[in-house]
Design brief:
mainly alpha; 70% helix
């Protein structure tokens, strides 16, 4: 009982830390989108996030690090848990047939959970791209983000993290997500992110076999046809 209580307490503390960290990053990104990287101070981030300056530096060494955030913080816990649980009924050593439909739900859920408007997201990306030092940090940090996704996918599929199938899946997911994001945030776009992402995965499936059928990607809950 004591061990369970300690484990629960530790988990609660980590969730609170993650929530505070996410709030700091959200504030830093919003201010960057609205004012540019050099257009606000750490104190303004603290005010928007409702924390002290000391708390800020307990989480991030600089304003730039707060903008980039922490690997995994962009994935709401409920979405991550649902994605991982989606592979629980798959036989050991086999990639789950629902991988891509579940990936769509994960990616769409992440997009819908964003606290910024489309215009603000575009402004944030432009600000990061225009700042060489921050862009370099973003590229360096992308490997840590990728490893977080690899670990999540390995847990879902009950496969070792160095399994080539996981590495290929992560690469494919990153490619379609990047393509879908570029198309979705285009000024003249009128399509939903779900529609763009699904179409991108269907296009990928047309040239490279994926677990599940294209019908399962488009209609994940529909019964198979006769």
């Amino acid at each position: 009982m004591v061990d369970d209580a300690n484990n629960d307490g530790g988990g609660l503390r980590e969730r609170k830390r993650a929530a505070t960290r996410s709030a700091i990053t959200a504030a830093a990104r919003l201010l960057t989108a609205r004012s540019g990287i050099n257009g606000f101070t750490v104190e303004q981030v603290c005010e928007r996030a409702g924390i002290s300056r000391r708390t800020f530096f307990n989480y991030f060494p600089s304003k730039e690090d707060a903008i980039l955030g922490h690997p995994g913080d962009d994935i709401p816990e409920a979405l991550a848990e649902a994605f991982i649980a989606g592979g629980s009924s798959t036989e050991p050593g086999v990639v789950s047939a629902s991988l891509w439909p579940d990936f769509i739900e994960l990616a769409v859920g992440m997009m819908e959970s964003m606290a910024m408007t489309r215009a603000e997201v575009v402004a944030l990306k432009d600000a990061i791209t225009a700042e060489p030092r921050l862009m370099e940090q973003a590229m360096h940090g992308s490997s840590a983000v990728e490893q977080h996704y690899v670990a999540m996918l390995a847990e879902r599929e009950s496969l070792p993290a160095d399994d080539p199938r996981l590495q290929m899946a992560i690469g494919a997911m990153a490619s379609v997500a990047k393509y879908a994001g570029t198309m979705f945030f285009a000024p003249d776009n009128s399509r939903s992110y779900r529609d763009i992402l699904t179409s991108a995965i269907e296009a990928l499936a047309a040239v490279a076999p994926l677990p599940g059928s294209t019908a399962a990607v488009r209609h994940p809950t529909a019964p198979p046809s006769d």
